[in-house]
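Q: Start with the shorter request: fold the first protein.
A: Done. Sequence, then structure:
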Amino acid sequence: MSTFVIKLGSSIVARDDGAVRDDVLARICDEAAALQNAGHSVVIVTSGAIARGVPTAQVLLTFFDMSARTHYLNARQTLRKLLDWRVVPIINENDTTTTDEISFGNNDFLAAQVAILLAADRLLLLTDSGGVFTADPRREPDAERVTSVEDFSALEELQIGHASSPLGTGGMRSKVVAAEMATAAGVGTVIASGLDPGTIGRVAAGEAETGALGTWFPPRPGRYSSFKLWLKYAKPARGRVDIDAGAARALRDGGTSLLPVGIVQVTGEFDAGDAVDITNGPIHVGKGICNYSAQELRDVRGLKSEVVRTRLPAGPEEAIHRDYFVLT
């Protein structure tokens, strides 16, 4: 059986005037319950906790729960145990303890993180639109639905905006970014209408893959390990390390570790164990866990390993080990 992460957009939960869509929520809950009763595991991400027909548990997560590795693993263990108990977790961000600096930004990204966390089979982003369109269908009636997306760069030509409902913080662009995050982890993603009856069951039956509804984002090859997915998408970067072209080529093509000799510039303040972005001029190469603090790295940047050992005898040879680095 499969695990489904279903995110309900604000436009599904409530109308523009703030009135709750009781009829829509009741139907979605019935459809989710049918999926659960068929033996699948169901997780719901929404800005309002709802329950109907099956045992549920409200789970409030913060960005810190995802960015700290131990918390990340604990959250996964808790959610998996709830699913083992045939309980439907209803997940939302814990707004009482978050700030603008440490928040997911919106529930699209939270839903993608949960799907990655659980290695879900499907991420379903329900909205008031029937999927991704070639233009805003509310303004251009001739806009066509995009049935599937494999090349995300092709979407740059489309007029995919940030606008959402008056109650929401996302928009179609954030849903596409969430799909890009999830599919990189091997999670097939669907953006579809939550206002149309039967959408959840039709997605479970595979109709999105055939182009019958919504927009289908197939899982992409080259799936990363759980640790590297966490590093790529959940661990925040505390600084930036600019490297020369040779080091960038070695990281990209050779799968090597980053040595201090290849480092050109260090930006920001961070400690050993923090994540940093790795760049080669304007090109973003990847992200890694740094073995040195920012000041230590400034002291040894550009130096060969034997010189580094004399300056920092206790320091490791690698500034960033290849096992703690991920290409972006």
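Q: Next, the second protein, separately.
A: Sequence, then structure:
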Amino acid sequence: MIKFSKIKSYIALPMMEHFRWAKTKFKYHKRYSDSYLKLGYMTRLNNVVFGKYNWTSERVTLDNVSLGDFSYVSENSVILEATIGKFCSIGPNVRVAPGKHPTRTFVSTHPALFSNPDYCQKNFLDKDYHNPDRHVTIGNDVWICANAVIADGVNIGDGAIIGANSVVTSDVEPYAIVGGVPARFIRFRFEKDEIEFLMKFKWWDKDIEWIERNKDLFLNIKELTKHNDI
């Protein structure tokens, strides 16, 4: 016969997870009460800075992350050590800065023997000797499709698109479309002069009222570039 204490231990964990999520949700909603923040069920947050109009879907993890205005993260994505710009669309099951293991020089690929992560039961070193700079920078208006992996230390330029199931191991130029394993350049989204216009114009830094007035211009890049007076 199973003792009640053992049964209690089985049901306590989900309840505690739900309590932690509710506590986190309350804390961040209170902190960003005027920012229209929406957090999905079981979203886990640690040291996160939000802008305005952000939202996460279910079971998202953000750790040491800054999220710009209007950017969102879809379900089951795990984003670590990242600065993310405005108007970014991050699809489901995306992984950002998941960590690297050495393949050369270092004798072992085990993290206890090249770094000192918290999750190891015992570490032999006092710091990370393999990948000390994990931080990822993602520009504005970036679309990261489902199941993509962004390796530690990568910089992704404004307007870029990361194809589904891609593994990005090197920097991505502004308005480039990349895909594959490892991700390779496919094409640019727009003509060179149009990209130069967008990079100089920086529409994502305009206020909401400006976007409201000019929203129709967003339907065609050529129409937007015609209006140098806006």
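Q: Describe the second briefly.
A: The chain has a mean pLDDT of 91. The domain at 4-99+134-189 is CATH 2.160.10.10 (UDP N-Acetylglucosamine Acyltransferase; domain 1).
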